[in-house]
Amino acid sequence: MTKKSYYLLSLGCSKNTVDSDSIAQMLDASGYHAVQSPDRADVLIVNTCGFIGPARDESIRALRELAQGKRKRQQLIAAGCLSQLWGPKLAQEVPGLDGVIGTRRWMDIVDFIERLRGRPRPAPLYHLPTDALTVGDDPTGERAVSRTAVQGASAYLKIADGCRRPCAFCSIPNIKGTMKSRPPQAILDEARDLAARGVRELILIAQDLTDYGNDIGLKDGLATLLRDLCATAPQLDWVRLMYAYPGAVTDRLIETMATHPQICHYLDIPLQHAHPDTLRRMRRPANVEWVHRTIAKMRAAMPDLCVRTTFIVGFPGETDAEFQTLMQFVDEMQFDRVGVFTYSFEPGTPSALLPHQVDEETKQARRDALMRRQQQISLARNQQFVGRTLTALIEGHDNNLSFGRTYRDAPEVDGLVLVEGEIPAGRMTPVKITGALEYDLTGVIQF
């Protein structure tokens, strides 16, 4: 009997990538095998992203393209965030869609496919529970899967899913449900396994890392987890933290980061804005003084700390004065890495009801102005490393030039270090920095 085959396209963020890898593990364990071409697959799956408008558009395009080329006996399934957010509306947008499964019960994918096989196709089949928590009970026994995604010598490990924060612009709670932490032992077991497989960098991810453990009775859960993780998997070179929430970075977390060499002196803490009135409309922490104090405290404990943040410009009601406050804040804080997004209108979120929506031209102009300001800051921050030696995790090479990342660079969102010569991928290499650009560094191997 020929094994059933599947084609899986993962869109969106690293958290979606982990979900896609978990889906693939379940399919592989059930007798399916992955193929790289849609033409060769019995089942076509798109793990969609629904976070902002451009991501939704990309997901719909991908689904429509697969639907148009679908053979008679192929099944097309939409999974993930846009599926949970839109439900039946997604099938209206994509004629030829056979099934829609949401974020909260991705672990039912095998049963869902079998249900599709056993029914006629008058209409799509839906599996969109809204009362289940995002992670729910981790699959156990024969259906156990890891919540990781390995990319070269790096790996993402999801420690929680969902979010209980009230941000006015964000649809994640509608998509994922409330915050649900994974059991600490399951996370430690996966970290140990990844280290044994040769992973050099472990990237902890969640919608809100700093909320980890609150729902299962842990106080300062992230700090405790990090301490135990470093002891459990000492072979790991780097442990990187992504997605911290303002106001939730504790003194104990700072101390843990500063005293465990494996933990990168790197923190991604999306602040979203700097004017208290804008932050209140966003339903975000509006104590900007906390940011000043906490970043200063972290930089005192870790002088080489790299801080990454993101901002939203053009949020409803944002005045010229509020935007100028944000520009001044960026000047004062001297962040190493900054991402700037224009506000995306999200139906169903509280911000969709706010008056004084900002026009697209103004949004784009503000984004461009803030990015130009940050480019100058990023260049100056990078220039401080010229002449110093940094360890780089090499990711590949081409034409006698290798490329990798330092502790200051998360995959996909930050810069690179470009090194003369061809160095094997996966190697931790000391690099003497010889030049600096706005986002990247250049260097030579330090023998």
Describe the structure.
This protein has 447 residues and is α/β, with parallel strands linked by helices. The protein has 3 domains: 4-127, Cobalamin-binding domain (Rossmann fold, 3-Layer(aba) Sandwich); 146-383, pyruvate-formate lyase- activating enzyme (Alpha-Beta Horseshoe); 389-445, Nucleic acid-binding proteins (OB fold (Dihydrolipoamide Acetyltransferase, E2P), Beta Barrel). Helices cover 34% and strands 23% of the residues. It is built from 13 helices and 20 strands. The chain has a 7-stranded mixed sheet with strand order 7-8-11-12-13-14-15, sandwiched between helices. Strand 19 and strand 20 form a beta hairpin. Helix 7 (184-196) packs parallel to helix 8 and helix 8 runs parallel beside helix 9. The protein starts with a strand and ends with a strand.
Key features of this structure:
alpha/beta, pyruvate-formate lyase- activating enzyme, OB fold (Dihydrolipoamide Acetyltransferase, E2P), single chain, 7-stranded mixed sheet, 447 residues, 3 domains, Rossmann fold, 34% helix, 20 strands
* The named CATH superfamily of the largest domain: tm_1862 like domain
Tell me the overall shape: globular
Q: What is the number of independent domains?
A: 3
Number of helices: 13
What's the CATH architecture name of the largest domain? Alpha-Beta Horseshoe
Q: Measured on Cα atoms, how large is the radius of gyration? A: 23 Å
Q: Assign the structural class, choosing from mainly alpha, mainly beta, alpha/beta, alpha+beta, or little secondary structure.
A: alpha/beta
Question: What is the CATH topology of the largest domain?
Answer: pyruvate-formate lyase- activating enzyme
The level of helicity is: 25-40%
Give the N-to-C terminal Cα separation.
Answer: 56 Å
Please report the first level of CATH classification, the CATH class of the largest domain.
Answer: Alpha Beta
- Biggest sheet strand line-up: 7-8-11-12-13-14-15
Low-pLDDT segments, ≥5 res = 136-142
Main β-sheet description:
7 strands, mixed
